[in-house]
Design goal:
The chain has 17 helices and 20 strands. The strands form 4 sheets. Strands 5, 7, 8, 9, 10, 11, 13, 14, 15, 18, 19 and 20 form a 12-stranded mixed sheet that branches. It is globular, with a radius of gyration of 21 Å. It is α/β, with parallel strands linked by helices. About 7% of the residues have low confidence. A hairpin with a 2-residue loop joins β2 and β3.
Amino acid sequence: MPVRNYTYYDYTLSLCPKCLKRIDAKIVFEDDKVYMLKRCPEHGNSKVLIADDIAYYKNSRNYNKPSETPYKFNTKTDYGCPYDCGLCPDHEQHSCLTVIEITDRCNLTCPTCYAGSSPFYGRHRTLDEVKKMLDSIVRNEKEPDVVQLSGGEPTEHPDFFEILSYAKSLPIRHLMLNTNGIKIAKDKDFVNELKKYTPDFEIYLQFDSFEDDILKELRGAHLSEIRKQAIANLNEVNLSTTLVVTLQKGLNDHEIGKIIDYALLQKCVRGVTFQPTQIAGRLQNFNPETDRMTLTEVRRKILEQTAIFNPDDLLPVPCNPDALVMGYALKLAGEVFPLTRYINPNDLLDNSKNTIIYEQDEQLKGKMIDLFSTGNSVEVAEENLKSILCCLPHIDAPHLGYDNLFRIIIMQFIDAYNFDVRAIKKSCVHIVDKDYKIIPFETMNLFYRDDKKARLKVLRNEIKF
């Protein structure tokens, strides 16, 4: 009998990357890789690489937990995912991290920008509008885990510190500032003022490369000295910082290990987040056929380029295992100890129950599942880590503190190419729209920005009930 050149694994709903219509898709294994096969009646067949590690892809399905929904939904389910955002009652995850774009304006015009920001694009949200956006998150979440002020470049907003003060007055557990670091590098007084908003405040610092030519291609400017000065200023006041790296295959993926090694030497840096480029917004120097990176490719390159981590150190995140990988490490006496190496996930994973089961008591199990969540800052995780150190006999750290913690995250924002409705329903990184609805970050960039809404209206009108 004829035999397929692949092994069929699963079925899902995806999107045509050209017209964004919802279409059937097969998940298949071929040549030790995972592909999505789909066909649009208008635009034909497409084959998309979604993972280069079959074993990891299959294992990630075991890292799951019961869905945690928001206290309030913002829209009805009428057209089906992803045309009803959000959050609609069919969504399966509350907001672990919620982004607020307080401005469209930016002091850069990055060739790679999901929001299409520039010095002349759009406008600043008014202070009243921003307050309403923050209030909408609190209505949904009651005590939001993490809220990130973003843009554009949020430090350009004329009411920046008023916004920051209002956010700190709300029951938000952890606040982040997403920034390109230019203001931080140039103004120490500004950094000193930021420090006043600690604890539970963190800088999410754009840090894509050490090489100016690469930064020019990604960000449109030579920024390596700016980055170094920003880190120096943040180190001076020890203001908690996560380095965020937008990755493009063949451009800066060779620097993954170097960035981790550099981050571990910085007093203020609590971790690194790697984000493969989402095919959305402005992409001037990006070819989807050659430049896309998958989550598993990033994970593999971390393992190849550092001597610190092994495969058991970087685990799927239970709230959205298809799109998130996380690993914690302890920095002690000049050495780095990946936490999951001592926990040994192979012994702790119980495949039959479709969850992570820990050999210790239920309280510890809950603390570990809480730890592996994008809804936790490193600071929030400190208490969880202290509570489990007694179960890790190889680590003696009676004076463990915030400065000892380090976290690696891979955060893959799904786009029209690798869209999988199963994973989108578990999206836990959300954004507040201008109408104060909470929308998954991925679908916001595909359908709900101003220039996308006309296409969304057409797609909705074509759906037959």
